[in-house]
Amino acid sequence: MNVLLQILLPALTALLAVCWFQPHILRIAKDKNIVDNPDARKLQRIPIPVMGGIVVVFGILVGVMCFSFFDNLNSMLSVIAAVLVIMFVGLVDDIHGLSPKIRFLIEILIVLYLVYVTGNQINNFHGLWGIDILPAWASVPITVFACVGIINAINLIDGVDGYSSGYCIMASLYFGYAFFRLGNMKMVTLAAIMVAALIPFFCCNVFGKHSKMFIGDAGTLSMGILISTFVRNMLTMSTDATPIADNLGLIPLSLAIMCVPIFDTLRVMSARIARGTSPFYPDKTHLHHAFIDLGFSHIGTTVSILCMNTLVVLVWLIAYKCGASIDVQLYIVIAMSTLATFGLYAFIYYHIRRNTKIYRVMRVVARVTHIERKGIWSSIQNWLDRRSAPKEESDDEMAA
């Protein structure tokens, strides 16, 4: 019961902190015109406030402070410091724009800082390809490459309402459960805090109108740091963790949880390089753009992609339960992830270009995802707008 309280109370504190803080940041963003303006590449039609990342990080910090009453969090201080630094870097990028090269360099330095200070690095393959503990000369470059890749993959999925926050909620739940089974309660609590801080933002992002905010680079980069922290802790050498089963593939599990962001990023960047453009040059070739081109709503796109990601995790789980070796689990996850990203993207546009019967069926399915904002959906939107929107806007709506 005490362990449950240590998890739930910080999470509840984070949720309440975000609910309280969001209207204030929303007002500042609108007053100072800190918004994401529509252009040919973006999907929104009107300027949207872009400071949601500050709200989410604030909630996470308050939740971690609450957890400090239950446990010594010295080991987490460096992670929190890294989150704050990357949040401010992302905020500068949201407001003024940063060169991808500068941001990329900062990400590398932050990951190296975390490896040096915490000692947590990807140095335990847990038997994959017969490898267990890696030497530092190999584990540090692997850690930097993997963590920077994760940070940018999370950043690049921020394209439709609810996608990046919904994915991070899903990933945190999966990692949190895995850490619970492995006996790492600090990571369980951090995952729970992250879920709780993201839920209010997700609801306003998906269902709100006047209360809608984008999480921005400040949010996606911060979430990327935390997701990469889960991976580092999952795959680091530990002497106090619960022993794991011989065929429990933690690398295949981690890859399955992150399959769509990672493999879609690999697909997009490789296609950009093949066209002779920078891999960081923004365009509309992500998997979520394919769903939008089919006619899916934003929430329909988000749910569809998250369901596909969950399917890959379930396939990994079936392979593990059936006794597949760690190597086989990895190959299955790679194959499924490739089909869910490279294969699905090619499949969709093949049928779009040829206007096939399958394309017309997909268009019918896509129309189903457009839910008219009336009844309970209208009530949810109005409640969120009244609670989160600046008071003067709520008064104007009532007068109208």
Protein architecture, described:
By secondary structure, this protein is an all-alpha fold. The protein has one domain (about 1-370). It is about 70% helix and about 0% strand. It contains 16 helices and two strands. A two-stranded antiparallel ribbon has the order 1-2. Helix 2 runs antiparallel to helix 3, helix 5 crosses helix 10 (about 260-275) and helix 6 (about 165-180) packs antiparallel against helix 7. The radius of gyration is 21 Å and the shape is globular.
Give a short summary of the structure.
This protein is mainly alpha-helical. The chain has one domain.
What's the structural domain tally? 1
Beta-strand content estimate: under 5%
Helix share, percent: over 70%
Spell the H/E element sequence: HEEHHHHHHHHHHHHHHH
Overall, the morphology is globular
Query: What's the average pLDDT?
Result: 87
Total number of beta strands: 2
Uncertain segments? 394-400
State the major sheet.
2 strands, antiparallel
Class from secondary-structure proportions: mainly alpha
- Radius of gyration over C-alpha positions, nearest whole angstrom: 21 Å
Q: What order do the strands of the largest sheet run in, or round the barrel if closed? A: 1-2
Query: What is the first-to-last residue Cα distance?
Result: 50 Å
Helix and strand layout, with pairings?
Layout: H1 2-31, E1 35-36, E2 48-49, H2 52-67, H3 74-95, H4 100-118, H5 136-156, H6 163-182, H7 185-207, H8 216-234, H9 250-257, H10 259-274, H11 287-294, H12 298-321, H13 326-354, H14 357-368, H15 376-388, H16 391-399
Antiparallel strand pairs: 1-2
